[in-house]
Amino acid sequence: xxxxxxxxxxxxxxxxxxxxxxxxxxxxxxxxxxxxxxxxxxxxxxxxxxxxxxxxxxxxxxxxxxxxxxxxxxxxxxxxxxxxxxxxx
Length: 89
Hints:
Blueprint: H1 2-16, E1 28-32, E2 40-44, H2 47-54, E3 59-63
Antiparallel strand pairs: 1-2, 1-3
């Protein structure tokens, strides 16, 4: 019994130190119809993907106003242009 308690304690500690969950960050949301407004799912990469999901269910797609696009590629550092002095003629 003592071994089982130790195993459980270690498993709980490992679960507690995992990285916290983050909200989904996708640009499109599906608003499903239903009584009281239905549900919303903001997990769609494209408008077409969203529309294919709600088609036949009675819903619609809207842009996610909380969407934050990932940062673009890093810009290479600007190289200083070498100024060459004209040679005396």
